[in-house]
Amino acid sequence: MLRNVVKRFGSLTAVDGLDLEVPAGIVLGLLGPNGAGKSTTMRMLTAQSRADSGEITILGYAMPRAAKRARALMGVVPQHDNLDEELTVGENLEVFTHLYRVPRSQRADAVERALRLAHLEDRRDTRADRLSGGMRRRLLIARGLVHRPRLVLLDEPTVGLDPQVRQELWGLITGLRDEGVTVLMSTHYIEEAERLSDEVALMAKGRVVARGVPGDLIAEHAGKTVEEFPAGPDGPAGMEDILRSGEIPTRRTGATLSVLRAEEIPDSLRDTLGRGDTRASNLEDVFVTLTGERVE
Amino acid sequence: MGTDRIGGTGGTGGTGGAGGTGGGTATAQAPPGRFEFAPVAGVLAREWALYRRSWRPTTFAAVAEPIIMLLAFGVGLGSLVGAIGGHDYIHFLGTGIVATSVLFTSMFPGLIDTYVRRVFQHTYDGMLAAPVDVRELVTAEAAWIAIKAGVYGCAPLLVAIGFGLPASPAMLLVPIIAFTTGFGFALTGIWMSASVPSIKTMDYIISGVITPLFLIAGTFFPIDTLPDWAQTVAKINPLYHCVELVRSTAFGLDPLADLGHFAALIAFIAVAWCLAVFQMRRKLID
Prior knowledge:
- The complex is a heterodimer.
- Chain A is α/β, with parallel strands linked by helices.
- Chain A has helices spanning 38-45, 67-72, 89-99, 104-117, 133-145, 163-178, 190-196, 214-222, 235-245, 267-273, 283-291; strands at residues 2-9, 12-20, 27-31, 53-58, 61-63, 74-77, 151-155, 182-187, 199-204, 207-212, 225-230, 250-253, 256-259, 277-280.
- Chain A has 2 domains: 2-214, P-loop containing nucleotide triphosphate hydrolases (Rossmann fold, 3-Layer(aba) Sandwich), CATH 3.40.50.300; 224-280, Alpha-Beta Plaits (2-Layer Sandwich), CATH 3.30.70.
- In chain B, strands 1-2 form a two-stranded antiparallel sheet.
- The interface between A and B is large, with 68 and 55 residues.
């Protein structure tokens, strides 16, 4: 639980009065653009960054005072790959069984389980520097799970990976939730947040601007569908005025005007507007509506 | 709401979630903030795993260099110098080069390896996400370097014995002396690595600190041949105390003086540990 947490770097306020509570056993997606304060929040949760003010409690332990106790029950998958290149997959995991103090008699089983979980059994003896990007990412996740944590922090788990590898990792994360592990995942990928998260917290400028089940958030702020109109001779600005008069929310992306809650456009405006390209509303629409910023 | 408060009611720790191999069992028993040896052992386990992959080149560099130096200076220069204080120059030098070896095998890894791991490999970020704190991390890194210094530091002494230096039981203390000195210099290297703004600025440390350290320590010549000011500087140089202790084991113990030298090394460790932990914490914790 974070309560009114503030973190500043000089004149920059990275986290600005953040309140966040994570229910047990869910995947909570922390969605926001780069610079929203997601990674700083993740670092504060491991006490690798110290809040200037506010309270942080993890698994009942006050941070940063009882950070080691909390970290013993957490698994952390960092955004930056920090595997030991010269060590094999198995050795990388074994090292972390030591760091997480897995009892000696259980270390081999812990490594086996983590290998199975990440589908890396046949790579046990491969050096980390010979793994593909996706395998390295899976190994990082396995490393964070080697001690069976109650809470897993995933900091941008699929950033920079190709779509196929991303899909693989999504399966892995879904599996964690199915095992009852609480997951806090930061991401700036809309689809990732929508597909994996039981709940999403939208972050902008160091604060949570909205929080809820993705479907509920979308329904509340963006409706069911969005219609997109190219810039016409009158330009989107003219359309915006018309829609604003009917209290229909819009957002602009370059020369495209997206009309949110398109299903609520009254017939009286339809004749004037015509029909645009229709698509399902998503969290990006919610985010832009609430903050005026784009996520990606 | 059944919150986990980012993970539950906690407090009991230990069971470690679904099945509980118990990450946290040990930590849950220790009061928060206490220095623990389990994390130190964890970091050492990593070092051992890495060392098993790299021991050949590491050992070659650590052993060959002081031996080459000993042979070059001891045999070459020794024929000109003859004896110092009644001891063959190669024996005098062999005992001094133990200290030089300890300095190089501890200060350089402390300085360069820890910089690379911190800045380029983000290794320490990974470790500090586990139940390890900066004090334990720094202690473990320095201890591992010191263990190697304790072992490799004996090589020049063995060569000197090969050249006729009489072996004595007191020489069994040399690994302890080398470990202790290596621990202090490893910590100093770690402190400096966390203090430099970039890897390039390490040249200032190598040329401006390390070179004078081993030249003004009595390794190649007795410090009483130096001017008064340089003798004073030498006496606050921790390497000098290492040199004196190693020579005592080879040429005859002087318990009171040796205790003084050992106390100086312990004080050096205490200061270097505080500086290293302070500076690493500044760099690793925002």
